[in-house]
Amino acid sequence: MDQLRNKKGFICDMDGVIYHGNQILPGVKEFIDWLYREDKKFLFLTNNSGKTPQELQEKLSRMGLHVDSSHFYTSALATANFIATQTPNAKVFVIGEPGLYNALYEKGIILDDTSPDYVVIGESYSYNYENICRAVRHIQNGARLIGTNSDLTGPTEQGIIPACRAFVKPIEMVTGKEAYYIGKPNPLMMRTGLNMLGVHSKEAAIIGDRMDTDIVSGIESGLDTVLVLSGVSTMETVKTFPYRPRLILKGVGEIPTLAAKEEKAEKTK
User: For substrate, which residues are the binding ones (predicted)?
Assistant: First the structure.
């Protein structure tokens, strides 16, 4: 914990770390208070492409957490930035939610269901057979396939549900084309996050609930790694991976509690 509390920057996942659905997780308020009190730089880096930073800010506000929208970065924003850099004024066919549409629009990317340059898929409540067929047709005609993130599942109050990669898989199987996934563990997301914080990777830590996105991202980018068991991962699933997080905690609420104990112990020496 001493190593963790001395970090200058913190990159935190959201689903399964801060909340499940609309339910805040235990100890989160104390964790965020600790980040502010210790003057830490922090960023909520989420693979969920459905909401804008402003909507995420409002969601936390309804839970009693007041965080400026500048502390949020999503896979939708990363996807829009990637496409705008690769193909300015690109045309795209999208299966996703408002957060993804808004991010693409702000980068000057054009929605096109006739001859798009890209098929872009994120989490979606409107995913259906008709849209799958459209996506397949566009890819067969030369469009390139992009997934906002590689998460197969996601945690909710009701349990585990399908996420982006589960939506992309049928299209990959039919077309024989593999998607390029933008979100974690793609280094694009991590480099952007560190740049937004203005800290070196050695001065930062990543906190997440997934071994296959959060923890591997941290390991490959040189960040300190903290796995919380409040989302997807369990002690049993951790054992199935060839890599390990440096710390495993029940939830983020343990960070300020353990940090306070260490500080008290240091003062009594």
Answer: 184
